[in-house]
Amino acid sequence: MAYALQQLINGLTLGAMYGLIAIGYTMVYGIIGMINFAHGDIFMVSAFIAVTAFTLLAAADVTSIPLALTFVLIVALFFTSAYGWAVERTAYRPLRGSTRLAPLISAIGMSIFLQNAVQLTQGARVKPIPPVIEGGVQLWSTPAFTVQIGWSQLLIIVTTVVLMIAFTWMITQTPFGRQQRACEQDRTMAALLGVNVDRTISLTFMLGAALAAVAGVMVTVYYGVVDFFIGFLAGIKAFTAAVLGGIGSLPGAMLGGLLIGLIESFWAAYLWAEYKDVATFGILCLVLMLRPSGLLGRPEVEKV
Amino acid sequence: MSTLLSVRNLSMRFGGLTAIDDLSLEVPAGSITGIIGPNGAGKTTLFNCLTGFYKPTFGSLVLAHPTRGDLRLEALPSHRVARDAQVVRTFQNIRLFPKMTVLENLIVAQHNVLQRASKFSVAGLLALPGYRKAERDAVERAATWLERLQLTQYADHAAGALPYGIQRRIEIARALCVDPVLLCLDEPAAGLNPRESAELNALLTYLCGELGIAILLIEHDMSVVMNVSDHICVINYGRKIAEGTPAAVQNDPHVIKAYLGEDEEAGVMEESTS
Amino acid sequence: MSTVVFAAHGMTPAERLRDAGWIAFVAFILGVPLIGLTTVDVGGRLAVNTRFGLLAAAVAVAFGGRLALRWAFDRLAARKASRQRAGSAISRTQTIANVLGWIALGAAVALPIAFSDNRYVVDTATTVLIYVMLGWGLNVVVGLAGLLDLGYVAFYAVGAYAYALLSTQYGWSFWEALPVAGAIAAGFGILLGYPILRLRGDYLAIVTLGFGEIIRVILVNWTEFSGGPNGIGSIPRPSFFGLAFTRSAPEGGHSFASFFGLEFSAMHRLIFLYYLILVLALLTHAFVSRLRKLPVGRAWEALREDEIACKAMGMNTTHIKLSAFAIGAMLGGFAGVFFAARQGFVSPESFVFTESAIILAIVVLGGMGSQMGVVLAATLLVLIPEFGRNFAEYRMLLFGLAMVLIMVWRPGGLLAHREPTLRLAKAAGGEQ
């Protein structure tokens, strides 16, 4: 029981991070109807930026944890959004209105490019940083097992909840949110009504990248190691989360992320740890076959 | 005249939207039936239900096939509607295979015949005489239709690069290559100039009169519908509001109301037919 | 797109400079965290190194590159316009492609004779041919049928492991295992394809990617079956009609060298392997080219063009997709068998996603659906990194970049021309 509770906490932490990345997939899919294959790699880039920023801070002898975290978050958000913007601008915008395959292939190319650019400039070895936030609270102690929630886990879950609230507010209440939803429904009509579609799409990419940046900082804080390959698996899992929740739906992405995180934790704890990635892929295939619109998505009617 | 297709109590809902509402309709064999109605009346949805792209929420579509007996179209997947029931359609926004040549488009339409002749590609790979003959026949058939629709000169052009009016004709020629019993044309005159519309009229009359192909025609161009249709069905808000000969439909108060609104004077419909 | 790329027509020099300056600024922002700063391991802890010189160089390259590209584009656009006026040259391109094809074939046949004692050249050429064969296989799925398969390497792996297991466990020879392994791979293709082929293009891509990874994870972890991360070793090499390529002839028999009265040379086997893959690749080419002109091939292309229209023409799109998937998988399986036989061992490391991406890059860069394009792209992609070893680490970087650029500027690939499968004039002429 205690063990299961611990898995629940671990799963929620993992799921919160998947959820944040998944929102990026879902928003981009919603607005331009393509899978942004490079999104996982954007997340990876932000993790590397976080590592560099933390190391810089350590060199500057900054010891205040809140200060350090704020600094790293701001730096990561800024640079990662710039990457999100640049990726859309170079690899996707010229292909708008092209065939369905072309942007997808371009996205795969971009993903390979980013991965190898980071490998070349930052090195192929894993980057460890000293733990940023240590300790936690013991929730429950049995003779056999102690359930503990780490401060970093708490931070991740709380940040995610806060971000989700802020985000929902932005999409439903602000002019940008309105424009964003308008473009999702009908880009041509939105343009005719004076919405700057290009700008809205650019901003959507930057927002998705910003959320991935937060996830990247969190992964760095939580695991303490990053390498250039983490974007691949995280990206696929987050995409699975987005599909599971119903692609195009923001709450769906978060829900899907949490479910994938929980499934992965429990699968690794109780079944075969080495096959945990297979479990994710299996879920992906099953969802797509049985319920392609996901848990919270609306079914799509084929336009003839 | 015997009934070829009977649509009974057809309804199609998308979530809360009712696109077709308890529609019943008979299409006689060997005739041209026009379907008209304002935009969004549910005409194309009817075609989509008929050709298996949508599964109707309720109702039945029965085709009295000349050799295969009664077929329930609503139970067939779209490819079997074309293959087994021989109900073939064109699309409002032309759907050709743009990078393939016009001739290839027409050959692809004969896929099932050729695939059978190629014995799942085995006979084809070996270029056995049986397959070679089947391919020659297919080309000949395509060439006949190209000739008939004055498309021969474009046979080896990529279909997507040709002008709009020609693409419309190609789509009809391609549908004819499937050997239809019932041909469903979705706005075949859209974007055609008056001369081309007149040619279309002649073609439709020929197909129906000489070859006995029944035609279901969605069209906004009244000069086409009123001149070639034997029978017209008017739809609005997914319901049938009038039915009858072109002359009868034109003078039906419901139709005038649907097209012109409550208070307007009638007269436009007559003008457009002259 | 045109507004982005071609609006530069008639740009003033000042505008050009401002434009390039903007690009340089973006390059600077993007470059700071990755190029300007890097973390290095100093005694177990990370420290930050600065590389501002490199960053400055990158920004300068971005600035100069943008200026040069703009200029080149304007020139290109002008030339294109004048060429269009001069009329199309489609049939000429085709003749050139044909001639090049025959020259390439001649060169491929002559290569081991010319380099009969150069192990490196023959080896590299064999690698090129493996990729050509894989490219032709994937071309059926992606180029003709328009189904984006990101897990193609899974079928390659199935073929390789099928031969590895059949030969080491049951003593099957290469020629016995080849068709069976191809059939197994095709079976996997159908098994995977049946449930997922209803999916839309981008979902299909992700699921096939997942499938490729599942196969790899299973190969890594199911040690009793696949040997785990170590793979399977001492796989028997193919023999020349029963004549082995060994130094000494077996008891009461002949080796290849002794049968032909030659002195034993390790090169015999390499050259034999080279010709073997050449023959396999040529058979693949003949097979695929022939299929393309059959109903099934035309159906693949029609499917790529418009699936809904296919259904309206009475075509069973599921079957058509399955046939493309199965045939692509089978060809991948054949290539896998050859790969296992050539290497003598297989391990999951050879079947990572990167490998799928390379094969896809070959198909895309060459020109989707173009057989000659695959040859060109495979040759380029294998040879470029071979020319400078320093270059090798940039290989994947350039792959990625090339995929993006080719899509943006030439979505059809290097050789984008499509030859019709039949012509009315010809077909009618043959009839009379």
UniProtKB/TrEMBL annotation, chain A:
Lineage, uppermost ranks: Bacteria, Pseudomonadati, Pseudomonadota, Betaproteobacteria, Rhodocyclales
Any stretches that span the bilayer, and where are they?
12-35, 42-59, 65-87, 149-171, 203-223, 278-297
GO MF, one annotated term: L-leucine transmembrane transporter activity
Protein's name in the database: Branched-chain amino acid ABC transporter permease LivH
Q: List cellular component terms (GO).
A: plasma membrane
- What is the membrane topology listed in the Swiss-Prot or TrEMBL record? Multi-pass membrane protein
Concerning its family, UniProt says: Belongs to the binding-protein-dependent transport system permease family. LivHM subfamily.
BP GO annotations: D-alanine transmembrane transport; L-alanine transport; L-isoleucine import across plasma membrane
Q: Could you tell me where this protein is found in the cell?
A: Cell membrane
UniProt keyword list: Amino-acid transport, Cell inner membrane, Cell membrane, Membrane, Transmembrane, Transmembrane helix, Transport
Q: Can you name the source organism?
A: Pseudothauera rhizosphaerae
Automatic annotation (TrEMBL), chain B:
Q: Which InterPro entries match?
A: AAA+_ATPase, ABC_AA/LPS_Transport, ABC_transporter-like_ATP-bd, BCA_ABC_TP_C, P-loop_NTPase
- Key words of the record: Amino-acid transport, ATP-binding, Cell membrane, Membrane, Nucleotide-binding, Transport
Cited PROSITE patterns:
ABC_TRANSPORTER_2
One of its GO biological process terms is: L-isoleucine import across plasma membrane
> Which GO molecular function entries does the Swiss-Prot or TrEMBL record give?
ATP binding; ATP hydrolysis activity; L-isoleucine transmembrane transporter activity; L-phenylalanine transmembrane transporter activity; L-valine transmembrane transporter activity
> GO CC terms on record?
plasma membrane
User: Which residue numbers delimit the ABC transporter domain?
Assistant: 5-262
The UniProt transmembrane annotation reads none
Q: Which family does it belong to?
A: Belongs to the ABC transporter superfamily.
What is the name listed in the Swiss-Prot or TrEMBL entry for this protein?
ATP-binding cassette domain-containing protein
Supply the source organism for this entry: Pseudothauera rhizosphaerae
UniProtKB/TrEMBL annotation, chain C:
The keyword Membrane appears for this protein: yes
Does Membrane count among this protein's keywords? yes
User: Which keywords has UniProt assigned to this entry?
Assistant: Cell membrane, Membrane, Transmembrane, Transmembrane helix
One GO location term (cellular component):
plasma membrane
Recorded hits in Pfam families, A to Z, give: BPD_transp_2, DUF3382
Q: What region holds the High-affinity branched-chain amino acid transport system permease LivHM N-terminal domain?
A: 16-110
In the record, what terms sit under GO molecular function? branched-chain amino acid transmembrane transporter activity
Family matches, as InterPro entries: ABC_transp_permease (IPR001851), LivHM_N (IPR021807), LivM-like (IPR043428)
UniProt topology in membrane = Multi-pass membrane protein
Q: Where is the signal peptide?
A: none
Q: Which residues cross the membrane?
A: 20-40, 52-73, 94-116, 128-148, 153-172, 178-197, 204-222, 270-288, 322-345, 357-384, 396-416
Where does the record say this protein resides?
Cell membrane
Q: Which NCBIfam families match?
A: PRK11301.1
> What protein does this entry describe?
High-affinity branched-chain amino acid ABC transporter permease LivM
Write down the species: Pseudothauera rhizosphaerae
Chain's gene name: livM
